[in-house]
Amino acid sequence: xxxxxxxxxxxxxxxxxxxxxxxxxxxxxxxxxxxxxxxxxxxxxxxxxxxxxxxxxxxxxxxxxxxxxxxxxxxxxxxxxxxxxxxxxxxxxxxxxxxxxxxxxxxxxxxxxxxxxxxxxxxxxxxxxxxxxxxxxxxxxxxxxxxxxxxxxxxxxxxxxxxxxxxxxxxxxxxxxxxxxxxxxxxxxxxxxxxxxxxxxxxxxxxxxxxxxxxxxxxxxxxxxxxxxxxxxxxxxxxxxxxxxxxxxxxxxxxxxxxxxxxxxxxxxxxxxxxxxxxxxxxxxxxxxxxxxxxxxxxxxxxxxxxxxxxxxxxxxxxxxxxxxxxxxxxxxxxxxxxxxxxxxxxxxxxxxxxxxxxxxxxxxxxxxxxxxxxxxxxxxxxxxxxxxxxxxxxxxxxxxxxxxxxxxxxxxxxxxxxxxxxxxxxxxxxxxxxxxxxxxxxxxxxxxxxxxxxxxxxxxxxxxxxxxxxxxxxxxxxxxxxxxxxxxxxxxxxxxxxxxxxxxxxxxxxxxxxxxxxxxxxxxxxxxxxxxxxxxxxxxxxxxxxxxxxxxxxxxxxxxxxxxxxxxxxxxxxxxxxxxxxxxxxxxxxxxxxxxxxxxxxxxxxxxxxxxxxxxxxxxxxxxxxxxxxxxxxxxxxxxxxxxxxxxxxxxxxxxxxxxxxxxxxxxxxxxxxxxxxxxxxxxxxxxxxxxxxxxxxxxxxxxxxxxxxxxxxxxxxxxxxxxxxxxxxxxxxxxxxxxxxxxxxxxxxxxxxxxxxxxxxxxxxxxxxxxxxxxxxxxxxxxxxxxxxxxxxxxxxxxxxxxxxxxxxxxxxxxxxxxxxxxxxxxxxxxxxxxxxxxxxxxxxxxxxxxxxxxxxxxxxxxxxxxxxxxxxxxxxxxxxxxxxxxxxxxxxxxxx
Length: 899
Hints:
Number of strands: 31
Number of helices: 27
């Protein structure tokens, strides 16, 4: 029976196997149902994952991970495979034996049942994997440049600065570029245009462009984090870390890249090393471009090149204005295009102003609306829609950046000037001093120097401008852009809340008494250009008024005009058509500045002697004044500056008396005076105080004077010799009383302050050798001096040049020589003229050589040589190249320049 056991064992195994397979076949319908259920669950997980991926890709600009991407593909393939398997199962289920539940092909059915179970396990695994994704997408790698939206398309008026910046970006020697200009002029737009230029596929000169808005106050941490984000540095490497660690991370990445860093709106120099920016070099060829409102920031950031963005030209400004207003509005009436041109002109080329005003006008479809808004823009610009919030508030950031209150006061004071008015810098500084803005400086020259620094600062932040130089203009003239002026007036009037705090009237004609009554709370009043006040029935009240300026007006002082001025500091009535001052002016106990220049005053009231706080007394060009009251000037105990230029004194006695009164003043340190006699000249130079204080000296019509002795050292800045018919020689008297003929040099520069010399009608004057003692001379004008043959005899000046280290004429800017028939030489040999801008020669037929060498061309300062064509053609040249280089700047005027 031993053979029976193995047989039974085999039979048992066969039965078990057959039983399992039969069980698989029997449970197949249930398994298929489970597979469908699990596949549906997988499909739901798939949809959830897919939605997460699409949301993050579309909204968060991310990219799906490779793991998730692979899972999605496998899930999609699985769904297809399951559907195919289910279809096969359905087909096999149809192939059963007749009238039974048994499959015809048990082997094939069993294989399908096994595949169903395996597929169900795979579906379950995919479900589990899909439900456990912590992250489905990651941030996209940053493109090398991100487009910056430009509001204005096409950009108007920035072609020239754009081309210059783009040229510098190609220059391997230039690493840092500063773009500066006033607020609203288009600096940010220019920077965006530069950024977007790199979007062009053909331009891939740099690995990455980084854009950072710095703004104010400077936040170094924010700047660093903007750069870190742009460089895709993982948060865990810098989040919450100290400044130095962040800088290390930035430096680690940037030193491997060729980058362009664009910094917008910098208000103060930014320490790039602290930020983490590696030093630029010719080797790495990276670039930094930044915008700022201040030229000083360009210097503080060590910009290798600085580019100023100017306001638009008239044609460009009109084009931008028309584009913003829109064709529908412009075409709504035939008169509107012309009115649009007038409105655009009021914006004075400032793009931000053009855009704001154009938006305000876009809905105005009738000429009447345009006319009303134009009038409003001229008289009350703050009332035009959008100007306060969108224009003035933006421009006021420049004002807010001014570091001290004195400079802010000086800036706001400039809003008293009328539109397009140009004022010499020394005049506005004198007014500032008179107002007390610079009271911390006891010495008037120190205050002037500080005033000069304030002007430079306001120029550098583009709140003041230097006007275009006029011909032979000795002083720097300043002006304020009209929109900046409107903003300054808005600020001065406490952002429009106190409309009459600063009253400025320009060319408005007669002002009614009712209007004047509204000025009772005015702090400053300025009347300009043919503006006058009608006769008042009762004295006006100005209890808070500190300033009254009336220039070039037809001013008749109403009765009691000065009665109620309790805190007045400044009265400026220069070039006003007045013949007398009311005596009540002597009651202005707080008055510190009085300017009566260019008036027709015949007599000054003796009551002026009561002005004990008066510091500035200016009486220039008073051709109708008979004389000064005795002891009036000497009574002005606080007087620091006295100016009486171009005043024709009745007699030398009056001149001497005036000099003696000036000498009695304890605080006097700035005198400008005209003298006509040798006695007056001697009296001036005998007094150490007067000699030290005289900054302007005019000697006019000095009869019988053949020699003038100038005492050194001298503080004279401007010297004028006019119609001194018998004057032959000027001599220098050294401070030790030793007389030194002017043809011999002395061992120091005794006229170190002298900037300007005018000599007119001194027929017997032989030369100006004494000018070798004026190394800082900027302006030399000689006219109708018949005998003079040489301006300076060079052989006698060489010793001074060697000792002082200064070349003759090294600071000279303007040289004018008119009607000098015997002039043969300016200087005996060629010398550098590194500062010369203009030379005019007229009526000097014997002058055959100019003392120039090749350095005059290298300096690139010389702008114009002015003279007769016959004279120019007859010049002799040692260097023909020099002649060819200078010929393009030679011009022939229609008539000679007049003094």
